[in-house]
Amino acid sequence: MKRVFSGVQPSGELHIGNYLGAIRQFVQLQDQADCFFCVVNLHAVTVPQDPAVLRQKTLEVATLYLAVGIDPLKATVFVQSEVPAHAELAWMLQCLTYYGELSRMTQFKDKSIGKQNFSVGLFTYPTLMAADILLYQTDIVPVGQDQKQHLELARDLAQRFNQRYGPILRVPEPMIGEVGAKIMALDDPGKKMSKSADNINNRINLMDDAKTVQKKIARAVTDSGNEVRYDPEYKPGVSNLMSIYSTFSGESVATIASRYTGQGYGAFKGDLAELINRELGVIQKRYQELKASGTVEEILSQGATKARQVAEETLQQVKEKMGFIV
Ligand code: AMP
Ligand code: TRP
Questions:
Q1: Ligand 2 neighbourhood includes 6 CB (under 6 angstroms)
Q2: Tens digit of pLDDT per residue, the chain (326 long)?
Q3: Residue 253 and residue 247: Cα distance in Å, rounded?
């Protein structure tokens, strides 16, 4: 059975970009592979976090994992800081990572540009991500397009380690969807939808109510035309909405285009909001039930126990190979 690992940061609110780009794939994979889904709180503290908010968001993301349909009987759901091996392996891999490699990471450049004080953790973040993945001898990593470069580093580090010390670490493959892997911002289709953008109309959060979704879709930037046509270069706003429609409905963009021929953007946007609300409604209902049940912490604790066993095994092998006394 293949091993799958992925993670989501407990910072900000999860949005439909996270959902369509990553989390929805998790649910499908749990039936075919041995899956580990992690709430990566060590990654979140690469930028300042309020401790109380971080704690709350950590539980929120875990609850959302379960609300979208991840079944703790099929997949292991856990919190990164509960498994010390992540930080330990990250250090060892940092000593194999070149300064130049991390300097070229586009996410680091985006997040640090123009800032005076950013942490060293923000810089070494991709190495921690590599540790997450390699600890579990992962075959497949389902992520959005923006993580591709980080995945390349994880692969390079696995190969470098194996060459230097012997073949211990499995070299992972990214799994990036064809549609949905890069959902763009509603207020600016030139940028990706993001948790950290200031304008709340940038994104649709998984916990947004139906009215808010309607409003945000109605306000989404399109163009001065009226044709529902997929053309990312000349019609980036409409094309992004069509990608969202297509991933939610499972229909091709061609089918969607022909349905709205001659109808303009109003009807299309109205139906899109409805489509999103139908799916989010189900998730939100399950979320509230899970929250009320008080079972999430116990699920996380069991998940961490299982994750620790797998991670420790790899860590011991790495330590031995590197010449640490074990
Ligand atoms: P993050 O919000 O950075 O923790 O991302 C969690 C997951 O969502 C990662 O796999 C990202 O690649 C994915 N993701 C984040 N933003 C988007 C987006 N705008 N479109 C598609 N996937 C995304
Ligand atoms: N860096 C990822 C993001 O911001 C989150 C992440 C951390 C992750 N560790 C991971 C994703 C391991 C996949 C596998 O989206």
A1: yes
A2: 999 999 999 998 999 999 999 999 999 999 999 999 999 999 999 999 999 999 999 999 999 999 999 999 999 999 999 999 999 999 999 999 999 999 999 999 999 998 889 999 999 999 999 999 999 999 999 999 999 999 999 999 999 999 999 999 999 999 998 878 899 999 999 999 999 899 999 999 999 999 999 999 999 999 999 999 999 999 999 999 999 999 999 999 999 999 999 999 999 999 999 999 999 999 999 999 999 999 999 999 999 999 999 999 999 999 999 999 98
A3: 9
pTM beyond 0.85? yes
**The listed CATH number (3.30.1370.10, 1.10.240.10, 3.40.1210.10, 3.30.420.40) that belongs to domain 200-287:** 1.10.240.10
CA distances from 129 to 65, 151, 179 (A): 19, 8, 24
- Tell me, in angstroms, the distance from the centre of ligand 2 to residue 35's CA: 14
Among 54, 57, 68, 146, say which to mutate for ligand 1: greatest number of ligand atoms within 8 Å of CB.
Answer: 146
Q: How far is the CA of 132 from the centre of ligand 1 (A)?
A: 17
Rounded distance between C-alpha atoms, residue 149 and residue 145, angstroms:
9
Q: Which ligand has its closest atom nearest to the C-alpha of 126?
A: 2
195 lines ligand 1 (CB under 6 A): yes
The CATH number fitting domain 3-176+294-322, selected from 3.30.450.40, 3.40.50.620, 3.30.70.940, 2.60.120.10 = 3.40.50.620
Buried-exposed string 210-236: b where 16+ CB fall within 10 A, e elsewhere: eebbbebbeebbbeeeeebbbeeeebb
Every domain of the chain and the residues it spans:
3-176+294-322, 200-287
* Active-site amino acid positions: 111, 192, 195
